[in-house]
Amino acid sequence: MNNNDTRKLLKVFGVAVTDAEAEAERLAGTAAQLPASASKEEIARLLKDASELCQELNTRWLEITERVFAIQSRLQVQLAEAAVKVAGTRSP
Question: What is the DSSP string of 16-85?
Fold first, then answer.
């Protein structure tokens, strides 16, 4: 991946978060308006929608986390290789 890939990934994540925020507000509003006589099906549908929303957001969050770890890991390997190279050229 390169910087453009990272930008695209962050854009997808940003859109997912803002969409999730709006959907969470909608679901919370729906839940608040459920009558005491709401059916099990209505409640189950609301819980399913909320679960799917969280799953989608978690997937996007994991993609970002994996990207950050990959960047850090690559840098650590490159720095370790540079340190070995420098150490090997110095006399004791």
Answer: HHHHHHHHHHHHHHHHHT--TT--HHHHHHHHHHHHHHHHHHHHHHHHHHHHHHHHHHHHHHHHHHHHHH
Please name the residues in contact with 43: beta carbons below 8 A apart, sequence gap of 6 or more: 34
CB atoms within 10 A of CB 11: 10
How confident is the model over 10-58, as pLDDT tens digits?
A: 999 999 999 999 999 999 999 999 999 999 999 999 999 999 999 999 9
Predicted TM-score (pTM) of this structure: 0.79
